[in-house]
Amino acid sequence: MTIQSFRPSDESNLAQAFAEAFLDNPLNCAVIDRGPRTRLRVNRAGMHLTLNSAREGALILTVCEEGDRLAGGLIAIPPGGWPLPAPHFSEQILGLFRQGIRVTHRWGQVYSELAQRHPPERHWYLSTLGIRPEFQRRGLASALLDHWLLEVDGARLGAYLETDHPDSLSFYLKRGFRVCEEFRLFGVPIWRMLRTADFRSA
Fold first, then answer.
1. pTM of the model
2. How distant, in Å, are the alpha carbons of 25, 173, 195 from that of 167?
């Protein structure tokens, strides 16, 4: 297993890894509301947009296994970095073409709702953590999260995230996050989770 910082040459592989990782997540299925092939294509386009926004202002980590094959990654936004800048205009147009107007609008509704609930205090924000299905349950997500939390704890700051996957709750609870709110988007339960700055000393 190798964890390293994002390189521009990783973009296509990381976008594909994230697209596969979130293929069957409840909110993803509700927003796109199409079969797996369409969801995978739309996910890939969306993840390219996300990486386009994140590559300058966010911490992006990748994890590799099996002959350095990229298995997944993490995107975390440091204090003061949220919200990230919009993707370049050309990327937005390409993303609209690839995702479609309806899906783009629905994701816009999701981001708007999440933005209204985003905590005002300084914190690290875990935007994305995903592992390709074939590499899941091997400890890669745990290794990525723990690697990032070392930096969070070193800075004595809190951390925040949202998740729509019930299996992720226990994963984050074990690392000091707690649920601060549960609400619904497109009928899907969403959990907002916080990890306080004093977690390690508590």
1. 0.93
2. 10, 11, 18
CA 10 to chain centre: 16
Is 33 among the domain residues?
yes
Nearest Cα neighbor of 160 from 141, 179, 147, 144 is: 179
Question: Which residues are within 8 A (CB) of 97 and not within 5 positions of it... i.e. 6 or more apart?
Answer: none
Residue range(s) defining the domain that contains residue 135: 2-195
**Dihedral of the alpha carbons of 156, 1, 20, 15, in degrees to the nearest 10:** 70
Under a CB-based contact definition with an 8 Å cutoff, are residues 62 and 21 in contact?
no
Determine, yes or no, domain membership for 201. Answer: no
What is the number of structural domains in the chain? 1
39-73 per-position pLDDT tens digit: 999 999 999 999 999 988 999 999 998 778 999 99
Query: Residue 67 belongs to a domain with what CATH number?
Result: 3.40.630.30
